[in-house]
Amino acid sequence: MTRAPKPLRVLVVAPSRYPLRQPHAGGLEATVWDRVRWLRDRGHQVTLCAAEGSDFLEDSPGFALPAPTWSRVEDSSDTGYPEGYAAATDAAHDVLLERLRTGRHEVDVIDNHSLHPAPIRWSRDAGIPVVTTLHTPPLEPMLQAAAYVRGSAHRFVAVSQATARAWSVEGVDAFVFPNGIDTERWTRGPGGPRWVWSGRIVPEKAPHLAIEAARAVDAEIVVAGRIGDVDYFQQEVAPRLGGHARYVGALHQPDLCRLVGSSAVALVTPMWEEPFGLVIAEALATGTPVAAFDIGGVSEVLAGMPGTAAVMPGDVTALAHAARDLASAGHREPLTRVWTRRAAVREHALSRRYREVERVLAHTAQPATERRIPAVSW
Known about the structure:
Radius of gyration: 21 Å
CATH topology of the largest domain: Rossmann fold
Shape: globular
CATH class of the largest domain: Alpha Beta
């Protein structure tokens, strides 16, 4: 990997709900973890602001944020927080703001992936340029922060056209820079007889519908991922396990790559406005075909990819038939996995994505008199 022509001093701000470490809590955490590695490999000086227990914090312990501590595992949630956590996080961000104000010349640009509004406001309150990546549908506190920083050295980017449109409706305009994956770590697999579903186990990801689709055509399916909603898992997923459906928990990336790569087809079943769908790109990079519900940014990730099918959200029968057809086609023509892998590398390789992100960070870090919008290559 060639180094960047002019190294930047970058503060990467991660979401604070879960530490950045494997097994990754979700696609957002995996994306930011890769971002830190890639920027450092390119020669940039990167400081990470993330939840306690994250990788990469050994060089910047002063930027650790409190991680939620649940008294009972069954109370843990991807949507709520334990009592007192919001106040603790606000206080931690206030401390960081003062630190940035006193050391504003030690950071060229902030690469913000937080779902908290405070890092957005730092472009005005600390006078440091900020690039905020929009990883979710619009969130009201972030919308308020976006209005506050109008006219400051701040730029928004979105992970898909669908996400950019959703924020634009709310008055926040963003350039589109899709997520990427490390195609040197997501390698081609041999395929196999079973289907697979991977991701956060929460209602909006709907793995229970993937199990139903597999059951409809008598296919075996393996479900992998972190349980982000215990009640949902116990009520909708656990009763469907057994027989042709098996749950293997949250896996480290190498193990997850082997699982997905040794599968006949991957199912992706979002029942919300999916901002991107990193698991789609991951599966395609292993050569495994993908059958998915067409919602949010899913169609953008699938665009131009061989070995894919998109059906109406919630249509389990259509999903089952599409997945069966993809699995059968792969068995008949083994080279399909080669073609699928090649297309995924061409469209979703991390290096292609992040070179453009690097340009945005560099241009945003420039003085206002020199700043201009960089051209993009897609």
